[in-house]
Amino acid sequence: ENIRKNSSSSRRVRRLQNGAVVEAVTLFEVVIMGKRAMQSVVDDWVEAYKQDRNVALLDLINFFIQCSGCQGMVTAEMFQSTHKNDVMQKMTETFDEDGEDYPLIRTGSYWKKFRANFCEFIAVLVQQCQCSILYDSYLMDAIISLLTGLADSMIRAFRHTSTLAAMKLLTAVVGVHLNLDVNKHNAQRLYEVEKNRISGKRTNYRLDQLERKGKELLEIQNMMNAIFKGTFLSRYRDVIPEIRATCMEEIGSLINTYPDTYLNDSYLKYIGWMLYDKQPEVRLKCLLGLQGIYSRKELVYKMDLFTSRFKDRIVSMPLDKDHEVAVQAMKLLMLMNCEDVLSDEDCETLYQLVYTTHRPLAVAAGEFLYKRLLSYEGDEEVVPKEGGKSGANAHQLKRLIHFFLDSEVHKHVAYLIDSLWDWAGTFLKDWECMTTLLLKNDGGDREALNDAHKSALTEIILATVREAAEGHPPAGRGAAKKILSVKEKKIQSEDCTKITEHFIMVLPQLLAKYSTDAQKVANLLQIPQYYDLDVYSTGHLEKHLDALLREVKDIVVKHSDMSVLEASSRTYYILCSEEIAIYNQVDRARTQLIDELTGQLNQLLDGFWQKVSVTHCGDKQTDMCFYLQMILPALQCTYFSLLWQVAAAAENSSKKPDCDLWCLMEMQMAVGMKSNVVSGSFIGFVCLIQAFVILCDWLLILSHQDSNNNEEAVGLLDYLPSTSLQEKLLLFVQEHIFVEEKEESKDLTKEEERKDESCKLDDLNKKRSLLAAYCKLIVFNVVETTAAAEIYKHYVKAYNDFGDIIKETLSRTRHNNRIESARALILCLQQTCAESQDGSTGVDLASASFTNMKELARRFSLTFGWDQVKSRESVAMIHKEGIEFAFQGATGTDGKCFPPNLSFLLIISEFSYKLLKPDKKLVYAYLQRYTVEPLPYSRDEWQPLIWYKNSLLANEDEESSVLGSLGEWSQMGTSKASSCKRKLSNVKILFLNCLFQTLLRASPISYLGNTEPEALGYLLWVSQQQNVICALLSLNKTCATYDFSRKVSRDLAFFFFSKDEINTEDVLMERQAGDKSEDADVDVIDGDQVISDWVFQLCGQLYLGWVNMSSEPREYPPGCRAHFVAPFRLRKEVLPSSLSSCV
């Protein structure tokens, strides 16, 4: 050890710098600090090795040990020992296994730099030693032996560090092998040349040099084999994924660096096997290594067997759950495709990944699609010879259209364009070519686009325009809009100008040609929103604006499709911006259109009413269906009109909504009242649903105006729903949402079953929408919170269909007002209880309805969470109103009339564990007002009251008095049980805690020896027999691991568990002289009662401590199970809920 220290000081001695003393540091500290050039550090070590190789090598060994995070040091005596296994065992013993943190896995830039310095040190060490000490048969043997031994260690840090060091060492040695191979080749050539020209000493020198190079190569090959077999083969399937990833990374690097030796199936198979690894980082390293191999065309021909064996696995990896692995697999497949190893089926599968939501994978798939299907790279035969660049782009567009239609994912064209944008932006921005294809007359041309192709092309045009104008991925692909750079903003601005200048002139022509096609027109009408509208005025292009407005007007008049009308409205909205110069021109055209539409509507209505008066047949059913066809659009028109009036009223207080609001409500309620007439009519049912949704939305908007505290909107408060309207809304929900559909057994075909399931799913979605609309009224206090009670009744029964909506409603209402929300819950339970009563017999506790009601209460209690303080008032209010409801119908407090709702106490007992201890006492006191003792009826009839009291007194000191009064405890009378109310002084609690802590140490029984479990079981068994003194003595005698003196055992036993009535003050004076103040308040206690209570509490605490201290669920230890469970059976009925579940 002294020799090692002297070596270190000789290499890094103390020196004075500016008067400060700098201490010598170890090789590990020099590398981890990284302040010196690595080559100079290695040179210093090499010089020290040449002076004393044992000392220098010892320093290097300690370097690897310290890099593993071990605090131990290998001394000179240990190093010189012939038993190398003893050294490894000693290092393993000194390693701190509690700390799983070691340098290689620590996070942060500092430790990341250390890892780089560590790898660089090994590479530089081999490089600096290759001309001298690398072949001395001592240095490398010792290093390889050390790293191989550490790689087989049970300590993760040793294995990880030594594996990384060994693989970096192997890479460095391979580099030396390559240099030697080149030098040997050069020496061979020089020898051949000189052999033919001269002879003698010169030739002998070259021959000796050649032989020396051959020996060195042989030694290097032996080193490579030793490292590979000793480290890689044992660690590439290590349980730690970081170690496996390191092995895969280095084997890929070795194959790329030295393919002559490692590029064969004997080494490639390891990469192929690990493609199936469960950890994504290992799979990623395999893919990166294969990318390096397949990127070199001169190596691909050697990969035929590997490709045929593992191609299917690689083709499936773009679907990997890890995004980075999927992206790299896609890039690898692009390299493999260069050799045409992928079949058409494989490519078709990979093409569909352009529609994935993960953009990097979609972009990689877009590159694959572009190079394989759309590009002309290496496909000169299909390049069109006519038309030049425009013809090439047209041909690519046709290929893209065919692919889009064949993929049958028509709604995702924006995703397709975004995937191709980085690779095919040149022809995707050729809007002139696209519009030319649309405006081109067919003329019998075979290659002309059909109607489906033109529809797809309009979608592609819109998607490319949006991508160029907005500059960010479509919705759903990408977390947020990216921040554009200056260059990207410039490109975006240029693209917007190009779009505007081209489509200003071409778009009116397109709209005129396809004015009758709703799908094409709806897409084309969205293009103006991406215009630079100032170009109209600056370029003096007002005539093109007139043409556009004229075409839009004709389209509005011709079409009734909602998507076309919405696109037209959006176009008018964009063009009618007051900030631009063309506002007056567009506003005039819009006003003219509205006037014409209004006139046409009036004419149509006059003609309609005349037709109705002429064709009136007098059949009420027919007349109702006839009128219903007009109700739905009338409701929508009225609703939108009222929305505009509300918006105007918010801006100008002088404007008020007119009586159309009341007309809307009257029509909606009229439909609701006549629901029995139109129930068989599909149109009537649709109108009914639409009326309900419109009414809910309208009421919600009015409440929103109120919540904004807008003084101008105060007049709108007169329109809030009345009580009768709220009742009608609730009645609609009850009749149309929570209705059980009758199961009809029919023999249906598979197609009919599929349609039936689809219809049921659509009906469920409609019901969910209706329920959500009504629940929003409850959440925003439009209707009374108590109305939610009718909704909450179905929480358990309809949980699969509506549970999430009801639960969210409960959470939101509780956030608004906890008391009102709790009142709705207790009202729900009260109504459910009243509905389940069977005449005078009351509720059957064994009935299914009562079980469902109890389950509903349990579900409600779970929604309060763990914060008992936050829900304190709500839970207390539930108990208060629950007690009052339970004793309704009793004649006063004399108990002459049995309460008919007494079973409701079992329902609210589900909320007892949510009460704080002080609140339990208050609730218990409130309960006492309604009860008298002795009970006037039999105990069975009052059983709900007994159970409810037990739930309130769980873990309370008063529980024994109640149980004793009911004859439920031991053989103690009522008076004797009541006298057992007591108070433990601070000193008693202190002694009890000492005893408990001592016993708690024995609770994780599986960690102790064979005697402690039996001792603990014996203790519990003896305690159950109340022979506590013997139990404590047995514990002291058997559990020798604890310092538990017999004197303390006897004192504690005498102090707590005497059979006779004792005064604890005398004992305290004996044990603690002068400390009388701590036990000023003492009581005379009964030994039997204390024993039973204490044993019960002790067993429960021991069990909970045992479970909490164990990292995983454990079985009861042998010979102790019966003793451990038995104490719980004494008083199971008073267990708190946390312990009752355990039992």
TrEMBL record:
Pfam families the UniProt entry points to: HEAT_SCC3-SA, SCD, STAG
Cell division keyword on record: yes
Top-level taxon of the source organism: Eukaryota
Limits of the SCD domain: 232-317
Keyword Cell division: yes
GO biological-process terms attached to the record: cell division; chromosome segregation; sister chromatid cohesion
Keywords: Cell cycle, Cell division, Chromosome, Chromosome partition, Nucleus
GO molecular function: chromatin binding
GO cellular component: chromatin; chromosome, centromeric region; cohesin complex; nucleus
UniProt-annotated location(s): Nucleus; Chromosome; Chromosome, Centromere
InterPro entries per record: ARM-type_fold (IPR016024), Cohesin_Scc3/SA (IPR039662), HEAT_SCC3-SA (IPR056396), SCD (IPR020839), STAG (IPR013721)
Function: Component of cohesin complex, a complex required for the cohesion of sister chromatids after DNA replication. The cohesin complex apparently forms a large proteinaceous ring within which sister chromatids can be trapped. At anaphase, the complex is cleaved and dissociates from chromatin, allowing sister chromatids to segregate.
Sequence similarity: Belongs to the SCC3 family.
Subunit structure, interactors included: Part of the cohesin complex which is composed of a heterodimer between a SMC1 protein (SMC1A or SMC1B) and SMC3, which are attached via their hinge domain, and RAD21 which link them at their heads, and one STAG protein.
Entry protein name: Cohesin subunit SA
